[in-house]
Amino acid sequence: MTPRRQTLAHLPTPIVKPVRLARAIGLDLWVKRDDMTGGPEAGNKIRKLELLLADALDRGADTIITCGGIQSNHARATALAAASLGMRSILYLRVTGVGDAEPDLDPSRLALEGNVLLDKLVGAEIRLISPAAYRDRTRLMQEASDALTAAGAKPYVIPEGGSNGLGSIGYVHAMSEVRRQLDVGLAGKKPFDVIVHACGSGGTAAGVALGAGRYEVAAEVRAMAVCDDAKYFERVIERIIGEAQAIDPRLTHPAHLVVDDSAKGPAYAVSTPSQRARIVEVARLSGLVLDPVYTGKAFAGLWALADSGALRGERVLFIHTGGLPGLLAQGAAFGSEL
Ligand SMILES: *Cc1c(COP(=O)(O)O)cnc(C)c1O
Question: Is residue 72 lining ligand 1, measured as CB closer than 6 Å?
């Protein structure tokens, strides 16, 4: 049945119609403001953490272990939420070397900016790991958990992105929220034709597809990959959907899910000049602030799709999943766009 949620997010988040932006793209475009799920903890991860941290508390946990990229929004949201609940957090963050150099794993030399600044502010313990070690993250976190248990602590491990079946149910709830907003006419009365959002670890896509199907919010979900490729995410999302269905067997009919990897750019957290130019354009047309790691790529992909004529006449809901601290850590990359 429905697992317990720990209240962490500020809900419901608004759905807005950015009129000038919609006109520029030529779409019936609506935006679900999940960048407004909170203060510095805001973004999509806090919805998943409502379920994951409820489970951690119910199991008596006192320490949360999780992982991500160096500027991980998920790790930051976890560190902030854990601090608010009086829990310790340990973050395994992946660093990449410059050129052929081995990455510097000394946390004292980390730049205090963006998500890392927030992690440190709430006292999260950061453990830096190389990309090779990160591939083994599940085992690494389990070993850390075993060591803490042996020392008398009560650890709880949250996978990358909070993306397991339990976490994804946060986005099933988000879709029931959109259903109520449609019912009272806050976003037009008809269901959406397609929901578009950034995809980085698959949990949001799984929950959105399950919830959009269950609450008849949209016929199709288009998950815009920001790394890896469509095949990889199709497999990951299918696994998460299966896990969520085992938790809540009523989630029988996910909406049609398309993983689109056309806007993933050169690498995770690396964007193209034209993607950054879109971020600037969107900001100036709407006041909406996208980020170069997730939402900016997803939106650039949506814009390209609209330009191709593929979405003509369709009602489109873009989920703004947050990511502001990641933008603030990449100001230097915008040198030629601003
Ligand atoms: C993590 C994240 C995503 C991707 O969500 P997943 O559930 O990991 O696929 C999208 N946007 C932002 C800003 C994120 O931090």
Answer: no
Structure tokens at 6: 């720990």
pLDDT of residue 75: 98
Say if CB 213 and CB 319 are below 8 A apart.
no
72 is catalytic: yes
Among 4, 3, 13, which residue's Cα sits nearest to residue 35?
13
Tell me how far apart the alpha carbons of residues 285 and 100 are, in angstroms, rounded to a whole number: 40
Q: What does the alpha-carbon distance between residue 95 and residue 136 come to, in Å, rounded to a whole number?
A: 14
Mean pLDDT across the stretch 21-38?
98
Distance 43 CA to ligand 1 centre (A): 8
Structure-block tokens of residue 162: 């909070």
Structure tokens at 283: 């900001």
Say what the pLDDT of residue 2 is: 86
- Among all chains, which residue has been given the structure tokens 């000394």? 106
- Tell me the pTM: 0.98
Q: CB–CB of 68/163 below 8 Å?
A: no
Name residue, tokens 């029988």. 252
Ligand 1 centroid to residue 150 C-alpha, Å: 33
Give residue 318's pLDDT: 98
Task: Tell me the CB-side half-sphere exposure of residue 68, using CA atoms within 13 A.
Answer: 29
Cα distance between residue 251 and residue 236, in whole Å: 18
187-194 mean pLDDT: 94
According to DSSP, the residues that pair with 289 across neighbouring strands are none
Alpha-carbon dihedral sign for residues 20, 26, 30, 36 = negative
Q: What is the pLDDT of the chain when averaged over all its residues? A: 97
pLDDT, tens digit (0-9, with 9 covering 90-100), for 273-320: 999 999 999 999 999 999 999 999 999 999 999 999 999 999 999 999
Which phi and psi (to 5°) does residue 208 adopt?
Answer: -65, -45
Q: Which of 201, 259, 293 to mutate to test the pocket of ligand 1 (most atoms within 8 A of CB)?
A: 201
**Distance, CA of 57 to chain centre:** 22
Q: Check pocket membership of 68 for ligand 1, CB cut-off 6 A.
A: no
Gap from CA of 62 to ligand 1 centroid (Å): 25
